[in-house]
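Give me C-alpha cells for this 505-residue protein.
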Amino acid sequence: MLFAAVVHASQQVAATSARNGKIAVLADLLTQAETDEVDLLAHFLAGRLRQRRTGIGWRSLTGFQPAVAPRLTLAEVDAALDRLSDLSGPGSQLARKAGLAELMNRATDDEQRFLGGLIVGETRQGALEGVLLQAIARAFDVPLALVRRAAMLSGSVPAAAQAAASGGAEALVAIRLQVGRPILPMLAASAPTIAEAFAKLGGDPVAVEAKLDGIRMQAHKQGDRVGIYSRSLDEITVRLPEVATAVAALPCHSCVLDGEALAVDPDGRPRAFQETAARSASAADPRGIVLSSYFFDLLEVDGTEMLDQPGSVRQARLAELVPIVQRVDRIVTGDAAAAEQFCRQVLAQGHEGVVIKHLSLPYEAGRRGAGWIKVKPVLTLDLVVLAVEHGSGRRKGWLSNLHLGARDPANGGFVMLGKTFKGMTDEMLAWQTARFEELKLDDDGWVVTVRPQQVVEIAFDGVQRSPRYPGGLALRFARVVRYRDDKTSAEADTIDTVRSLARWA
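Here you go.
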C-alpha cells in the first residue's frame, strides 16, 4: 500500500466532524490493505510509530525538497524509520540527518507533513483510539467488544487489528491476559464534584480512593521474574528496583497489579511529581530518593484472571495479598458527606484528590469507563497569549495553538509556560483567529507572534519543572477555559504566583 493512501485518509478524518464518517474512512482503508500490512497501517492511523522513538525533533524536519508524485510504500517508510531508530554512538547524528533527508526527499509535500507529525507524535488527525477500534470491527466484520478486549489484553490496538484481519473473531478470542505482557490500563472519567460523581455511579456504596500524583505502573510477577511497566507499556523494571523487590516478596506465584510509584518524604507526604518522574527515569538517584509502591487493583493472581470480577471481589483479594502500607488509602461508603471528608483528608496529606469507583463493575482496561470517576480541585491562572500557531487538520485555516505567558514584574515582560489548543470550541477558534490577526506582529508561516495584550483563563493540573521554557516551569495538562476581555495584561497572574503553586518552591 502506498503511504499516500494513509495521508489522504488522515486528511479526510481530520476534515470530518461526524464520528461515523471517520469510522467509514478508516474502515475502507483497512479493507484495502494486505493482511500483513494491517498492523503497520493501524500504527500510522493511530498516529504512532512502531519504533516508538527515533531521536528526531521538529527542528530537523524542515528544508527538504518534496517529491512530485507519491511512490513511498508503508513498508519503505517503516524500514527507513527502523534504520533511523537503530542509530547510536559516534557519527549517529550525521547518519540520522542523512537518513532522514533520504526519506523526506522521497515524500510529497503532504507526506512530509504527515511524516513529521508521526515522528514527533503530533499528527492531530482526529483518529482517536475509540474510532479506530470501531473501524477495525467494521472492516473485518467482528464484534466491537472482542476488538476492545483483544486490544486491552495485548496492550496494542494494531495487534488487535492484525488478529482481526488474519483470523477474525476466533483470533481475537484467543488473545488472553498473559503475565509478563502489559495490558492497557483502565482510565477514570472526571467529575467536578463528589456529589456529581456519586450521582453518576447510581448512589450505591462506592469505594473512594486517594488519587496519588505518581507514576502509573503495572506490576507482573511470575515465579522469580518481576516486570514493572509504565502507563505507555514500556518496561521500567530496572528503573524501579525497590518496587520490583516489594512485588517479588508478595506471597503468590503469579500476579498482575495496577498502582502508582511515588516518592514520599520521611513523614509520608508526597514529593513533587517532577521528583517522582526524575527518580523513575533511572535506577538510582544521587539524592537518595526512594520510590514507594501503592497498589489499587488486582488483575491476576496464581493463574486466576480477575478482570471480569466485580471491583469488590478484586479489592478483597488485593487486601489479602498486598500489605496495607503498599495499598492506596480508601474507604467504602454510600454517604457523599463522608466522601467529602475523606477527600479533605487526602488533600491535606498533599495528594491530588480522589477516585470514586463502582464496586460491582469489571476492570475496563484501555477505556475511560463509567466505573471510575476522578474528582480533584481545578487550578486556574489568567495568562497572556504571546503567540499562536496556524492550525492543521480540522483546525486548518484558524489560528489555534496558544503560547502562554505569565507576567514577570521584575522586568515588565512575560515568561512562557507552555502551549495548548485543548478546550477550544469552533466559536472560540473563529473569534481568536480574528482577534490575533489584529494583534499580529510577525508571521513565519507557522507561528504568529502577537502583541501581549489578550488575557486567557487557563485550567491545569499542576506545575512542573521544564528545561524547555526560559522560566524552567510548565503547566501540566493546560486547557482553555475562557478569554478574559475584562482584564488587561497588567492584571495577568505573575510568574511568582506560578512558582508558589509548585510544591518544591
